Amino acid sequence: MLCRFATAGRSSAKLVAPLGCLVSRQKHTLPDLPYDYAALEPHINAEIMQLHHSKHHATYVNNLNVAEEKYKEALAKGDVTAQVSLQPALKFNGGGHINHSIFWTNLSPNGGGEPKGELMEAIKRDFGSFANFKEKLTTVSVGVQGSGWGWLGYNKEQGRLQIAACANQDPLQGTTGLIPLLGIDVWEHAYYLQYKNVRPDYLKAIWNVINWENVSSRYASCKK
Questions:
Q1: CATH 1.10.287.990 spans which residues of the chain?
Q2: What pLDDT was estimated at residue 224?
Q3: What family does the database annotate (predicted)?
Q4: pLDDT for 24
Q5: pTM of the full predicted structure?
Q6: Has residue 54 got a pLDDT over 80?
Q7: How many Å apart are CA 210 and CA 204, to the nearest integer?
Q8: Residues forming the annotated binding site?
């Protein structure tokens, strides 16, 4: 069963935290961004951010609420066929909500550069150097066929960082078991208005606004 993920407002940078499941669900809401739409310019322009957040993410939230309500009704009726048929909508829209709630916090107008502390040491340990890590995640993200995401995740069982790609809106943890630390959205709606079909240019630019403080905080939390 898909669990509900809470979203915080402008006062909190941590937008994703597991709470309850459909049994005692509340409606999901679109999280406020912790910065203005134009704050990431020139790397990601205001028009992209406005459409990406207020239209695309909002659609995932709305559709997830509809799918969960139908699922709740199907549960009450014991309609297993309906429950099964709703799984793709729950996965797609739930994943879209989870992924984007992480994505907004992974970006910052004061971002860029390199991480520090434990995260940097882990990157050096698992990838050899920050430059190697950056190249690997960029290559994986460029190589996503169609729409999807490039991820830096944490393998809790092995105690190491891993890079992975997910298709469409598949959530990283739900499909690979890796705990998401840094996600890069490579759907065309994330960059097309500014970078057209040149995904590598978008990926080169996005490193200038990566919020390493947030990624480091996520890494510290998942190790506990």
A1: 46-106
A2: 76
A3: Belongs to the iron/manganese superoxide dismutase family.
A4: 55
A5: 0.87
A6: yes
A7: 11
A8: 52, 100, 185, 189
What is the dotted CATH code of the domain comprising 46-106?
1.10.287.990
Residue 165, pLDDT > 60, answer yes
- CATH architecture designation of domain 117-223: 3-Layer(bab) Sandwich (3.55)
Which of 4-18, 116-130, 165-179, 189-203 has the least mean pLDDT? 4-18
Q: What's the per-residue H, E or C state across the chain?
A: CCCCEECCCCCCCCCCEECCCHHHCCCCCCCCCCCCCCCCCCCCCHHHHHHHHHHHHHHHHHHHHHHHHHHHHHHHHCCHHHHHHCHHHHHHHHHHHHHHHHHHHCECCCCCCCCCHHHHHHHHHHHCCHHHHHHHHHHHHHCCCCCEEEEEEEECCCCEEEEEEEECCCCHHHHHCCEEEEEEECCHHHCHHHHCCCHHHHHHHHHHHECHHHHHHHHHHHCC
What residues contact residue 26 under an 8 Å CB cut-off, 6+ apart? 4
Mean pLDDT over residues 136-165, rounded?
A: 98
Q: Which residues are annotated as a binding site for Mn(2+)?
A: 52, 100, 185, 189
Tell me the C-alpha to C-alpha distance, in Å, between residue 63 and each of 9, 35, 67, 87, 168. Answer: 20, 25, 6, 13, 16
Q: Give how far Cα 149 sits from Cα of 57, 58, 91, 134, Å.
A: 15, 18, 15, 15
